[in-house]
Amino acid sequence: RNDSVVGGKSFTAVAINCASKAGEWIKTKLGNYASLDMKYSSHDLVTEVDKGSEKLIRKLILTYFPDHSFLGEEGVEPGPEASAQALRNARDAEYLWIVDPIDGTTNFVHGFPYFAVSIALAHKGEVIVGVVYDPSKDELFIAEKGKGAYVRGRRMQVSGEDRLSDSLIATGFPADDSYALPLNMKGLAAVVPKARNVRIAGSAALHMAYVAAGRLSGFWEIGLNCWDLAAGALLVRESGGQITDTSGRPFDLGVRNVVASNGLIHDELLATLKSAEAIG
Ligand code: IPD
Ligand code: CA
Ligand code: CA
Ligand code: CA
């Protein structure tokens, strides 16, 4: 029996279905949410749309796969300690769905159309399916372990730039500003003069999908969580890119300080961050 197909539904098909349903609904709420709350800091926002998206996805996934485990951002107490603990509690599950119901909430709140739904499935701690959906552009990024990654049905391939000076790079500013913000600022100061330019567009999942698609050559950020990264990491890897922590160790679900790239500029980006003492 093929374990990835249950009741006629493949894992990937369910991930796609959830991401598109949630994404379409989120899009109708753009600039039209009802309640806005702060979580960990004044930079850490949540709306009823984040919660509603997570609820919709959770319900659909558990309908198809009632034995699977589920880890979604809005089901976890805010802050880095609680997030790390939630992952430790969940990561040994045979099948674990890792969901960011809106990656880019700040953009969503301001009507800036760059946010995504991120859904990953890990088998015994290893990501085997990753789907990132950008409803504003109706772009669906899909990766299956060992089977490549696709956008709009076309196989993705990372970019060919082999120098930082020819590369467009992205980064982000996390909600946990006490620890991560100073490090990200140092990294930014070091990378901006060396790279062609740097973008801070506000969705880690989309930044990684863009690395996979060759639209960016690299991305780094300090202080992320597994729901920001799990799907994007598989997209990058399956498109021929490299994904590590800031000390160069290969990605796993516990990584919070991430560097994703086309592989060719990876060492230069790591070295630049290291020289600026921006690696955490
Ligand atoms: C955030 C986004 C943002 C990144 C932050 C994340 P959220 O996720 O990915 O780009 O800079 O670190 O927390 O809260 O919008 O899901
Ligand atoms: Ca959030
Ligand atoms: Ca996120
Ligand atoms: Ca989120």
Automatic annotation (TrEMBL):
Signal sequence bounds: none
Keywords: Hydrolase, Magnesium, Metal-binding
UniProt cross-references to InterPro entries, sorted A to Z: IMPase, Inositol_monoP_metal-BS, Inositol_monophosphatase-like, Inositol_monophosphatase_CS, Inositol_monophosphatase_SuhB
Source domain of life: Bacteria
Pfam families membership: Inositol_P
Reactions that this protein is recorded to catalyse: a myo-inositol phosphate + H2O = myo-inositol + phosphate
Co-factor requirement: Mg(2+)
EC number: 3.1.3.25
Family of this protein: Belongs to the inositol monophosphatase superfamily.
Name under which the protein is recorded: Inositol-1-monophosphatase
